[in-house]
Amino acid sequence: MRLELAARLGENVPRYTSYPTAPHFHTGIDAAICRGWLQALNDGDEISLYLHIPYCDKLCWFCACHTKQTRHYEPVTTYLRSLHAEIATVSSLVAGKGRVRAVHFGGGSPTMLKPEDLVALGTVLRNSFTFLPGAKISVEIEPNDMDDARLDALAEIGMTRASLGVQDFDPKVQKAINREQSFLQTKTVVDGVRSRGVESVNLDLLYGLPHQTRESVASTVAQALTLEPDRIALFGYAHVPWFKKHQTMIDEAWLPGPEERFAQSQLAARAIVDQGYEAIGLDHFAKPGDALALAARAGTLHRNFQGYTEDRCETLIGLGPSSISQFRQGYAQNMPSTAEYGRMVADGGLAAVRGIALSDDDRVRGWIIERLMCDFAFSAIELVERFGEAGQRLLLEASSTALDGPARLLELDGDRFVVPAESRPFVRSIAAKFDKYFESGTARHSAAV
Fold first, then answer.
1. How much is the mean pLDDT over the chain?
2. Model confidence pLDDT, tens digit, residues 285-305
3. I need a labelling partner for 117 at 20 to 30 A (CA). Which of 140, 297, 332, 425 fits?
4. What element of type H or E holds 382?
């Protein structure tokens, strides 16, 4: 039955880290509108910050992030001046009204920064915004970058969660994706952050990579579990060479087919759950006492551009090129070009160049999609209580989807529309049924599983 579902639902669909998704952003949302949205924050609003570091010292061929390789540090230094300028502008517009609950450093490779630059960036943020007590500081770590000085710098900026990219420990797979990283390197970094008081460690694993087999995936998962991470993210490799040209370095003949990808994902998930981790949404796992697991059990799990999160902030401010901000009013994305971004943020400017303002229909559909992605279910009563007539209209679509054919996309359980257990690996495809932009769009997406 599952392979039949894989054949039917294994199409290319969005990852739904936002709704509407980024391909539907348009140039009608610019720096002037973003400025107004920042100024419209209310006193006491809780906000999250995302800082994008768009550089790596080595380019991984599997990566679909906005980044570029540099062997010299001068471009990074120039970029940091622009980032500091944007922080100053945004801080002046927020004018003390937003209190920071969470900060996420992503990339690229944030840990490519020199230790003194990491500390300076952390200091600028705390001097520019009001941080709530216990604010969470998450950093994406490239183990090949790390040394004691960088570990000390991360501790100094108050890092509470370290996220390490592992992908796969098999040397043949690592060579095929240009990401060589031994288990010992990874363990050394995990031990290093824990010895400095970090409260949560996340490991990113991938399936569907070139030359991966069920055996190699099982071996990687087994090794990763010996590190006892607090969280594991298990992603399917997104092969999008039309979007990221460096992925053409990966021969498509090396990639596992859809059935093998599905088998790898299910094998890895079972192995993780068998070690006592709780499955969170589509592709995350956490120890039962972790904040992510607690949020999932409480029905307060959310999803943003970093994936599943317990962060409940309605406002996420993205800083750096290509970063996306989320406001009550809609989404705004910065200029992707690092050089042009630098020119735009000079002298008090903002770099937003595209986005989308949310309609009432967008809000309803976005809520349904987020609840499906997080809970595999949503309540008809809550839908109508939250959104009134707009919610009532969407109930008709939900009912049609629930009754659509033998695949059992949704089932009715009391007042709840529920994704059946056997369909949960394909929840992105089910969410797409509520995406009014999906059929009319021209964007190309990655495989659902």
1. 91
2. 999 999 999 999 999 999 998
3. 332
4. helix 380-402
If we measure between CA atoms, which residue out of 253, 140, 337 comes closest to residue 150?
A: 140
Cβ 164 vs Cβ 203: under 8 Å: yes
Listed residue (344, 346, 347, 373) closest to 435, CA to CA: 373
The count of C-alpha atoms lying within 13 angstroms of the C-alpha of 328, restricted to the half-sphere facing its C-beta, is 10
| Predicted model pTM | 0.92
Q: How many residues does the chain have?
A: 449
CA distance linking residue 60 with residue 175, whole number of Å: 10
Look at residues 101, 37, 439, 438 and name the one whose alpha carbon lies nearest to residue 302: 101
Distance, in Å, from the CA atom of 213 to the CA atom of 198, rounded to the nearest integer, reads 33
- Cα separations (Å) of 346 from 86, 98, 122, 296? 8, 23, 21, 42
When comparing pLDDT for 421 and 149, which is higher? 149
* CB 233 within 8 Å of CB 286: no
**Cα distance between residue 337 and residue 335, in whole Å:** 6
Give the amino acid at 337: S
Show the tokens assigned to 24.
């539907």
Residues 346-377 pLDDT 10s: 989 999 999 999 999 999 999 999 999 999 99
